[in-house]
Specification:
heterodimer; A: about 110 residues; mainly beta; six-stranded mixed sheet; 11 strands; about 0% helix; globular; B: about 110 residues; seven-stranded mixed sheet; four-stranded antiparallel sheet
Amino acid sequence: DQQVKQNSPSLSVQEGRISILNCDYTNSMFDYFLWYKKYPAEGPTFLISISSIKDKNEDGRFTVFLNKSAKHLSLHIVPSQPGDSAVYFCAAPRGNTPLVFGKGTRLSVIA
Amino acid sequence: DTAVSQTPKYLVTQMGNDKSIKCEQNLGHDTMYWYKQDSKKFLKIMFSYNNKELIINETVPNRFSPKSPDKAHLNLHINSLELGDSAVYFCASSQGSDNEQFFGPGTRLTVL
């Protein structure tokens, strides 16, 4: 039961351009979403979040957009940097159960 | 000064053995978690635990058991290891209902 889906396993972007990572969800009860970034051999680190009362949250180069009617959110990174190369996970809390994660999208930023 | 640490980082063992993975957090958090990242890259919650309540994902076999000697530690014990237990296991912690979780570096378990 994949309640959080990241359908693109990988994405390659040129340095300086925009990276757009997508996430879809099926549970309309989700009201809070998080993005985590994971480097190889390390645990995921929190990146940015958004509440369902907003449609956009911005933090420096990172912006998350939420489209509730489409049950879709996206993470924009601009400008992309080689250090952004990592796996990005979309996640949502579900009631009393801790986070439900998507499969992740591997971003490669090419210099 | 690691916030959430796990030992060992790599664990290779035979089927049928019993093993433990340790987790410690120095953040003063009151809630700790164990996740399994399977071969399909899904991160699935196994347990969440605070000093009041243990929440178990019902799909986790009872061969897996968390043990918390104190608030800063949540160890994972696995009995009668099976091939399908091979995965990376992540420990995490958070403060109360704050959903920002801090993760450990992961333990790669390989069952032969």
